[in-house]
Design brief:
By secondary structure, the chain is an alpha/beta fold. It folds into 2 domains: 2-241, TIM Barrel; 251-343, no CATH class. Helices cover 46% and strands 14% of the residues. The chain is built from 15 helices and 11 strands. It has helices at 23-32, 45-50, 53-58, 77-89, 104-107, 119-132, 152-162, 184-193, 207-214, 225-229, 233-241, 251-267, 289-311, 318-327, 331-343, and strands at 2-3, 6-7, 12-14, 37-39, 43-44, 68-73, 94-99, 137-144, 166-173, 198-201, 220-223. The strands form 2 sheets. Strands 3-4-6-7-8-9-10-11 form an 8-stranded parallel β-barrel, surrounded by 7 helices. β1 and β2 form a beta hairpin. Mean pLDDT is 90; it is low at 270-286.
Amino acid sequence: MKIGNVTLPSPFVVAPMAGMTDTAFRRLVKRQGGCGLVVTEMVSSEGLVRGIDRTLEYAEFTEEERPVSIQIFGGDPDKMAAAAQIVEGMGADIVDVNMGCPVPKIAKHHAGCSLMREPHHAAAVINAMAKAVKIPVTVKMRAGWNDQSRNAPDLARMVQDAGAAAVTIHGRTAEQSYSGSADWALVSGVAEELSIPVLGSGDCIEPQQIVDRLRSGVSGVLVGRGVLRNPWVLAQAADIVSGRAPREVTLRERGEFLLDYIDLLVNERVNEGDGFRHLAPGAEANQNGEHVARGRERWVINKLRALCSWYSKGFEHGSQLRVRVNSAASVQELREIIDEFFVGCGCC
């Protein structure tokens, strides 16, 4: 599969999820196999243009993650074009435009899914970006704003004509948010009409679901919540496509994934030479070493709490794991809880 001049080794993509799919998580998913592309958490075009540190942190990635797409949001064509140039300068393979976020604080600024309510303006944004950079410009949208305005087919054609190299469609409307079911018939219909790759998203939790969606006529599948629950799901889907039984993942391996995630987070932004900033988010303003250490510790704990709210679903006693992780007061305690639950259980 190719998006513009970028060849993807697999049609399965880690979808961007704010606060969740950070560089450490993306690297670990990539190591499991089956992943053709990772997309960063969405970043503000305004923040990129103004050089705001926190925005730049969200856009950071490592060579291990390639090919990588940086997703940006905004509604001003000139600023979006300038932000695309910054993304290109950072070395990203692809720049993606968020036209699917239904969160009011994004949509009220004529960004995210609200751009679907102004299709000609949305196309102007893509045209400005495509003219400003050499890397592919892609778009992620929803089925529409609501059931009365399911305009993804029309908008997809418009952004294709404006210069988009690929389109991803989440089969729900903004009004639905994440309730109900994704309309994959709509997604497949758009894929039949466009000459550029069309990827689909929504309701892909199990590997067989991902494969079935791929076989519906799309070029690729983005997986968000399914990857948070099972970081091996893309590899398992790739196994099925290749005619193999999906690999089995032991409880021990699931625990080791979390321990590896902790290790990556703890060491994040420690070495200035690795391309990252020196401190974890939230610790920049604290100059005293003790306060910095506490800030980093709290950041790591909060990241594990967020991931475990998804990761523990489907496990026997998963609710007990969530309670224990949410009560952990230190990184060392987190490691002990995970080791006891996953590694020292004696059942794998």
